[in-house]
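To fix ideas, we quote verbatim a fold written out as tokens:
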Amino acid sequence: MVERVHDDTTSIIQYNDENSLSCVISLAYYCALDFYEISRERHAGKGFADLVFTPLMNHLDKPAIVFELKWGKSTGTAMKQIEKKQYPEVLRNYKGNILLVGINYNKTSKRHECEIKRL
């Protein structure tokens, strides 16, 4: 889905940094607004998570999601940053499932890579 949005929006989004990737992720998950409060660059733990999706009160069956976005690095780097900077702390009062998601845009292959961990 992320690659489809990227391909469909390359004419309006200059795709060369993490901010652009954040815009693509936000567009890809636009329909999530019915289920989530979406925060960009949210203070979390010892830093700022790129995106945090917190389920709305009437959709607590959905998992909360913490995203770390990388451009030209790796999903492993993203996941290590989530853990090192303790980003899940932003959801410490949330009682449901939490997903940690690292997404990297590979500049060479022009592909998106994703790693997901259930907390």
Summary: The longest strand covers residues 36-44. DSSP finds three helices and five strands in the chain.
